[in-house]
Amino acid sequence: MKAMVLHAINDFRCEEIETPTPKGDEILVKIGACGICGSDIPRVYELGTRVYPVVTGHEFSGEVVAVGNEKDKDVIGKKVAVFPLIPCRNCDPCEIGNYCQCQNYGYLGSRNNGGFAQYCLVPSRWHLVEAQNQDINLEELCMTEPACVAQHALRRGGVNAGQTVLIFGAGPIGIMMARWAKIFGAKEVALVDIDDVKVKFAEDRGFTVINSIKEDVVARVNEMTNGRGMDVVVEGTGSSAGLNNAIQCTRIGGNLVWMGNPHTDTKIELANHSLILRKELNMLGIWNSSYSETPINEWKYTVQMISEGKLEVGDLITHKAGIEGMKKLFDQIHDHEIVICKAIYSAALDNE
């Protein structure tokens, strides 16, 4: 099979490797599509991975084509999204279902071979989420992982019907978060970004977007809320400007979700540190998503909502490539030659 293999930092190649054969509980998935995550670019060009060589890509969907155990043969032919985390199931977080906090985990696409390939070996059926609508487009289904991150941020923020929500970052996760907020019943939703292309892209999808380069975010939010501030604010940029504005935009006693990975120079201004205390803000960290059945398996709910057409994701895919075109697509994103919302590997393009 063909796969995108990372051999070292900035040594990323499309090459022929052996198609794996499932054994024991393993499942072989024929990849339909795999999204390029924002973390994949620094992983390839700057940070590397813990193991080499490795097939990257963790946002993927596909069709089950073989199983290692006869008891799983009923899943053959099913279209599935794949939960990429491989938890140890033994540590304290795993014991209570907090798999994304596992202290000794593997991960498809960084520590184990992932989805930028024509096939992927999945550890067990437990990792598969079947689509209720088996006619679903696999390109849409590969959006499950980032859609789960978006959903998880709002659940951590405690979004309830009738509330106001502000989201810093109008990329694919930000837009999906805004869509989840509407599904959850938010009264008013707004996004913040500094990129004109992203601002227009989100506006074209019907959202209120504040360009914080051209407009005072805090003043605009005060105008929108009569000086009250937003009930729930999600900071998805990791920047000093985003975090400091987010603190000022959150109402007294409101919830501020920290989602964006911090930059090396991210700092909270002294006056805003004081605001955290004076406002008694609830500061909530987020890491990935929840795959536990209690209180809710966010992956199963996301796949259900995509399958039923209630969560729109396909219109966020702006760039695609077959497996042989993935290196060029990665380079174009890294070198800022193109502006994307979401870029994916699409197996449908492999023969073109």
TrEMBL record:
Boundaries of every Enoyl reductase (ER) domain copy: 7-340
CDD domains per record: sugar_DH
Keywords: Metal-binding, Oxidoreductase, Zinc
SMART domains: PKS_ER
The keyword Metal-binding belongs to this UniProt entry's keyword annotation: yes
A molecular function GO annotation: oxidoreductase activity
Name of protein: Galactitol-1-phosphate 5-dehydrogenase
Organism: Mediterraneibacter butyricigenes
